[in-house]
Amino acid sequence: MPELDLPQRQVTDTLMLTGFWYRALPADRVHRNQLHKAMLLEIPLVIGRDRAGQPFALRDSCPHRGMPLNSGRFDGENLECPYHGWQFDAHNGQCQLIPSLTADQTMKIDRIYAGSYPCEEQDDFIWVYISDPGPQGAGFTKPAEAPDPAPQVEKFSEKYKLAYLQAEMPVSIDHGIIGLMDPAHGPFVHQAWWWRTRHSIHEKKKDFEPIPNGFRMAAHTPSSNSAPYKLLRLYADADSISTTIDFVLPNMRTETIRAGKYWFSSLTTVTPIARNQCRIDVVAAWNLFRWVPLVPELLKFVFAKFVEQDRRTMEMQAEGLEHNPHLMLIDDADRPAKWYFQLKAAHLEAKRTGTNMKHPMPGPVTLKWRS
Ligand code: FES
Ligand SMILES: [Fe+2]
Description:
Elements: E1 8-11, E2 20-26, E3 36-40, E4 43-49, E5 55-59, E6 73-74, E7 78-80, E8 87-89, E9 95-97, E10 116-117, E11 119-122, E12 125-130, E13 161-169, H1 173-181, H2 186-189, E14 203-211, E15 214-220, H3 227-236, E16 242-248, E17 252-259, E18 262-274, E19 277-286, H4 295-321, E20 326-329, H5 335-353, E21 365-370
Antiparallel strand pairs: 1-20, 2-12, 3-4, 4-5, 5-10, 6-7, 7-8, 8-9, 11-12, 13-19, 14-15, 14-21, 15-16, 16-17, 17-18, 18-19
Helix pairs in contact: 1-5
């Protein structure tokens, strides 16, 4: 039963959630002797690797007078601000040297910090943990610790291939996420002769259930109206193929496809860069077709095509959003989008009150739509 007959009007809040890990940069772009700029949740970052190759992330703004540190000198251990030469430990941001101090000036420089963020390399990406803004110690704030390690793409065998794709979109993270979960745009945005046409639209019914911090589209056999799935069934010689799709706050969509001993798994994130800018990063791992020439390339090509279609669509949407920031979410096709907003609100409420999050889904739900 639809909970409302009238479409709901909704405004996105463009609020970006702190207290989570975010993908900052592809790991293969960050080399030992270079410093890179990145932006997460409107926080400018400088990212690099120490002498041993360990990644680090500092706030790209010197605590002295705001100079970006990314053009400073880095010796593999300490980063030197290009303005007055203050030096900071690349990992914890602690000040190591203030060259202008004379021998009798006994300032406690070890109490000064350039903001630093927990940083990890995982599945081809440098991840940065954006902590909740702590007490504003204006340069005296010690680094926060991440409560959990950075998320991973789920893998089901020892040997696998890994690849990533990125696309930047001029929309808020909210639009990026609901666009990613939206089941109704497929026949219109993702048309291709080898995938499907708008005439293949038909009724679908999927079961959803609540999971911690998100929801799951329960394991199901993928839509039979697409050629790649038919091919996969043939190749894997499996009676059945099952797909599970999860969404988990703040921004993660995982998809797992299993066919006999073969599997394909992806972790897609929508990263808030600024209020009206986000980036989609898809990282996929698979053990399918590892030895069939060109198939990995083909898979990447297909994925890149989808992501590009989404990117172009959101670029056009951004034009319209400038003038009409209200959304009209309908049942059942936009129910996942509604859950996203409700999850976000429940998460913030739990944080505000210091209580456990009250999950907005009471239990399993079946949704129906045509796509
Ligand atoms: S602004 Fe960085 S040392 Fe002065
Ligand atoms: Fe899409």
